[in-house]
Write a structure and sequence with these properties.
It is a single chain. The protein is built from 2 helices and 10 strands. Helix content is 21%, strand content 37%. A hairpin with a 5-residue loop joins strand 3 and strand 4. The chain is α+β, with helices and mostly antiparallel strands. The protein folds into 2 domains: 88 residues, Immunoglobulin-like (Sandwich), CATH 2.60.40; 30 residues.
């Protein structure tokens, strides 16, 4: 299983109990851990009453190899130990949104610079070349010859 950073993760596990007949196991203290070296997420699992346990959480913003782990030990019951290894990877370059809201100042700066460039070029083309101070550009060349 491969998860991205900040992805919605979930884990589920079916359990059964009984002496001569099987009946769904119902408990409210079963926990799911999302572990690298230490648990990053530890959350209680909810049951639907039919033996299925579910937990919802957001994967941490740190890539690496994690384990979904359920360790349920209670006196008088068999120990339940379930673990599954998953990898959490960073976003690829093409998985980010195209336009980020946090980058609006940069977008505004880009458009202001483009407008300033167009205005500067327009002013340079619209004004005539004055030559040296105190001289008219076209007449200065005729007087010097």
């Amino acid at each position: 299983m491969d998860l991205r950073q900040l992805a919605q993760g979930s884990g589920s596990q079916g359990e059964g109990e009984g002496e001569w007949t099987w009946a769904p196991f119902v408990a409210d203290d079963v926990q799911l851990e999302f572990v690298m070296l230490d648990p990053y997420v530890r959350t209680n699992m909810t049951t639907d009453g039919n033996g299925a346990f579910t937990a919802r959480f957001k994967a941490p913003d740190r890539h690496g190899i994690y384990k979904f782990r359920i360790m349920y030990r209670r006196v008088g019951w068999s120990t339940v130990s379930v673990s599954e290894q998953v990898s959490v990877r960073p976003f690829r370059h093409n998985e980010y949104p195209r336009y980020l809201g946090q980058a609006m100042p940069y977008y505004a700066t880009l458009f202001v610079l483009m407008a300033g460039f167009v205005v500067t070029v327009g002013l340079m083309l619209a004004t005539k070349d004055g030559g040296a101070p105190g001289q008219d550009g076209a007449n200065a060349n005729k007087k010097n010859q």
